[in-house]
Each structure stands twice: as structure tokens, then as C-alpha cells.
């Protein structure tokens, strides 16, 4: 009886593992394709060469880096490869670094929204140069913040466990929780609270001159939706870290959710970026028609019809009649 029960558990674990691998692979493919599509569109389309889309480009590049690191960690985990503490510590640091740089890329997008909505009088803040400064600042902060996970020995390699800081190191865990979750939420609340307050309390005439304020408020809401999806993908990882240090055997369902949820969240975030960003969406429609128009069969072109003096006239007939008048051969006929 015990053998049959353990066999059933092993079989269900294998089925869940295969399902999670399929979902993880599909989400990685979708997210990577969407990121590359946005990057290509921004690079080749001159109308998208703006300071705001520069930040979107940096977010897509950061997301690709996160997907690469997550894929490497998942491959090592799925294949049960042997490792030591130091390589595990490096993978943990790269994971925290890639996670932070993606989250904080949305924060610098919120700062950019603040520039365009509230501090628009300072034209220098709207330039590409200052947005490049924001990107450099994001890279520097993301590089420095997770350094304790690399310097200390709080990440230890344990088979069939993720290379993350153990929950028994409470100070280090609280520090990571602060920089990954608490600080981004506080900053987003403050930044978008200022944007919303400025939009609501502007006068009617001033709001007509600055109709873009409403657009920025909608864009702020969209970015909040994207960040919420991304943070939602990290909740299973937090729960897994807590449960894995409280019990000896972590439930297989929780483990599979921990591996799959972030990749699915990333795929949804990138798709929502295309859906909610109007200029990228419009350019994508135009490019889609241009790229795939050659695959469509040629159709008969219908001539436009105009109405002049209550008579319906076809421009093609007008052109033929004019040719007949000017052509002497047609006149003799």
C-alpha cells in the first residue's frame, strides 16, 4: 500500500513537472519574442525615437537579461546538476540583480512620467540625455543593492532548492524584502500620487492646454497594472522561501509554481506593454501590414467615387474623356 502511494505521488510529481516545463518554455518564448519585437520596432521606427520609449527599450533589455538568468537557474534545477556554494552564490546574486533592474526600470518610467506631467517646465529633464542618466542610475543601483548576497555566505547550495538567501538570516531577508518589494511600492505610491494630485487639481483652462496630463495619468495606471502583474509573479517565490525553511519537504505544487509563475508574469507584462502603449501598438499595426502585405494575393483596386453637382462621377471615366478630347484620332472616330 505504501509503495503504491509513493508511486502515485511520484507519477503526479512527474506530470506536474512536465506541465510546468511546457508552461515555462512557452512563456519564455512568448516573452522573448515580444521583447525582441518591441526592441526592433523602437530601433527601426524613427517616430518611436523618444525619451519615453528609450526607457521602454531599457525595460525590454533588462527583461531579456532576467529571462536568461531564470532560464539558466531553471535548467540547473531541472537537470539536478551538482554545484558548490560559490557558483550558487553567483547565480543568486545575478537573479537578484536581474529582478531589481527590471522592477526599478518601471520606477524610472514613473520618474519620467513625473517629468512630463509635473516638471515639464524644466525642458532639460525631458531630454534623452537625462533619461540616459536615469538608465545609468538604474544599472548602478541594481548592481550595488544585491551585493550582500554575493559578499556574505548566506546563500548555500542545497540540492533541489533555489539559490536564494535562507530565511534563517532574518536581517538579510528583511533587507531583500525591503529593496525588492517595500521600496518600489512606496516609490510608486508617492510618484503616481503626485501625478494624480497634479492632474486633478489643475484648472480647467490649464488642463485644456495640457491635455497630455490625462494621458499621463492613464499611462501611470497602465504601468501600475504591469508592475502588479510582475510582483504577483514573485509572490510564490516569497512563499517558497518561507515554507522551505520551515519544513523539511516543500510541497511539489508550491515548488512548480515558484518556477513557472515569474516567467508567466513576465510574458503577460510584455504583452500588456504592447497592448497599453498606444504609439507602439499603432506602429506595430502599420509594420504588420507592411511585412505581410507581400504574402497576400493581389486584389482589384476599386476606384473612388465622388459626387459633383448631384451626379455620381467615376474619376477613371473623367480621365478617359479628357484623353479622348485631346487625342485627334479619337476625334476623327
TrEMBL record:
It is a multi-pass membrane protein. Residues 34-276 form the G-protein coupled receptors family 1 profile domain. CDD domains: 7tm_classA_rhodopsin-like (cd00637). InterPro entries: 7TM_GPCR_Srsx, GPCR_Rhodpsn, GPCR_Rhodpsn_7TM. One of its GO terms (biological process) is adenylate cyclase-activating G protein-coupled receptor signaling pathway. The chain crosses the membrane at residues 15-42, 54-81, 93-120, 132-151, 171-198, 219-242, 254-277. It is found in: Membrane. It holds the Pfam family 7TM_GPCR_Srsx. The keyword Cytoplasm does not apply. Keywords: Membrane, Transmembrane, Transmembrane helix. Residues 319-333 have a biased composition (Polar residues). GO terms for cellular component: plasma membrane. One of its GO terms (molecular function) is G protein-coupled receptor activity. Residues 311-333 are annotated as: Disordered. SUPFAM superfamilies: Family A G protein-coupled receptor-like. This is G-protein coupled receptors family 1 profile domain-containing protein. It comes from Adineta steineri. The lineage of its organism: Eukaryota, Metazoa, Spiralia, Gnathifera, Rotifera.
Amino acid at each position: 500500500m505504501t509503495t503504491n502511494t509513493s508511486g502515485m505521488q511520484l507519477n503526479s510529481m512527474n506530470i506536474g513537472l512536465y506541465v510546468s516545463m511546457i508552461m515555462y518554455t512557452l512563456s519564455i518564448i512568448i516573452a522573448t519574442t515580444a521583447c525582441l519585437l518591441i526592441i526592433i520596432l523602437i530601433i527601426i521606427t524613427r517616430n518611436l525615437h523618444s525619451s519615453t520609449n528609450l526607457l521602454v527599450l531599457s525595460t525590454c533589455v533588462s527583461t531579456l537579461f532576467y529571462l536568461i538568468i531564470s532560464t539558466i537557474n531553471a535548467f540547473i534545477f531541472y537537470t539536478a546538476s551538482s554545484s558548490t556554494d560559490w557558483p550558487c552564490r553567483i547565480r543568486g546574486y545575478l537573479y537578484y540583480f536581474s529582478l531589481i533592474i527590471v522592477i526599478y526600470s518601471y520606477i524610472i518610467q514613473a520618474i519620467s512620467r513625473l517629468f512630463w506631467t509635473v516638471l515639464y517646465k524644466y525642458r532639460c529633464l525631458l531630454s534623452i540625455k537625462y533619461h540616459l542618466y536615469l538608465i545609468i542610475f538604474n544599472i548602478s543601483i541594481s548592481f550595488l543593492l544585491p551585493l550582500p548576497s554575493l559578499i556574505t555566505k548566506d546563500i548555500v547550495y542545497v540540492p533541489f532548492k533555489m539559490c536564494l538567501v535562507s530565511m534563517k538570516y532574518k536581517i538579510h531577508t528583511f533587507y531583500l524584502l525591503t529593496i525588492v518589494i517595500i521600496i518600489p511600492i512606496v516609490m510608486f505610491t508617492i510618484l503616481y500620487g503626485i501625478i494624480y494630485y497634479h492632474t486633478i487639481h489643475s484648472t480647467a483652462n490649464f488642463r485644456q492646454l495640457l491635455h497630455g496630463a490625462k494621458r499621463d495619468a492613464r499611462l501611470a495606471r497602465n504601468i501600475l497594472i504591469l508592475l502588479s502583474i510582475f510582483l504577483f509573479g514573485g509572490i510564490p517565490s516569497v512563499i517558497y522561501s518561507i515554507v522551505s525553511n520551515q519544513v523539511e519537504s516543500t510541497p511539489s505544487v508550491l515548488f512548480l509554481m515558484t518556477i513557472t509563475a515569474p516567467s508567466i508574469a513576465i510574458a503577460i507584462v510584455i504583452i500588456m506593454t504592447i497592448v497599453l502603449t498606444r504609439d507602439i501598438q499603432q506602429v506595430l499595426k502599420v509594420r504588420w501590414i507592411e511585412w505581410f502585405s507581400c504574402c497576400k494575393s493581389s486584389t482589384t483596386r476599386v476606384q473612388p467615387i465622388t459626387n459633383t453637382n448631384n451626379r455620381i462621377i467615376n474619376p477613371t471615366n473623367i480621365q478617359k474623356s479628357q484623353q479622348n478630347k485631346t487625342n485627334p484620332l479619337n476625334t476623327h472616330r
